[in-house]
Amino acid sequence: xxxxxxxxxxxxxxxxxxxxxxxxxxxxxxxxxxxxxxxxxxxxxxxxxxxxxxxxxxxxxxxxxxxxxxxxxxxxxxxxxxxxxxxxxxxxxxxxxxxxxxxxxxxxxxxxxxxxxxxxxxxxxxxxxxxxxxxxxxxxxxxxxxxxxxxxxxxxxxxxxxxxxxxxxxxxxxxxxxxxxxxxxxxxxxxxxxxxxxxxxxxxxxxxxxxxxxxxxxxxxxxx
Length: 224
Prior knowledge:
This protein is an alpha+beta fold. It is 16% helix and 38% strand. It has 2 domains: 13-190; 191-223.
């Protein structure tokens, strides 16, 4: 478990999140600097809980592969996700992202999670749709010590600590100050006035490809 100086925990935490890369496939980087961290007290696990809106999602198969390689650890709610659904047919996703100590900062923790933008409806006058990510909540789960009630509030989280215990345990919400209240993901969208043109081109391409397949069948015989 990660060790935490509970006597200094009332200082709160500072949280930042950042979207890396470009396009539909991004990495969500979350950093948290806690008010007090030491090596002389009980161990605690640190996590960030964030709600992803319908316009962005986590691929559960990609996450499972990363967790097998110990590259990241997270719990998704719900755990069944339709990765093909467009934004207007999808729902929000709650993510508990376990964080690791940042070796460059003695009081800092960080975690990275691959996220993906969903397709949106075509727009009238914009080339982009905006997906707003609120600042995550910082949670702590202590293995060997109990946090002071006046500093941390119990949080309803059905997930194990990342330390010694395997079953569900008591998580606590840490008072925190976000560096930014929200992060915005810009997702490219098409123009609604281009719908007719796209439909015509798609129909012509389908007819052309079907004709080529039929011609090949007639020329070379039935396909096995």
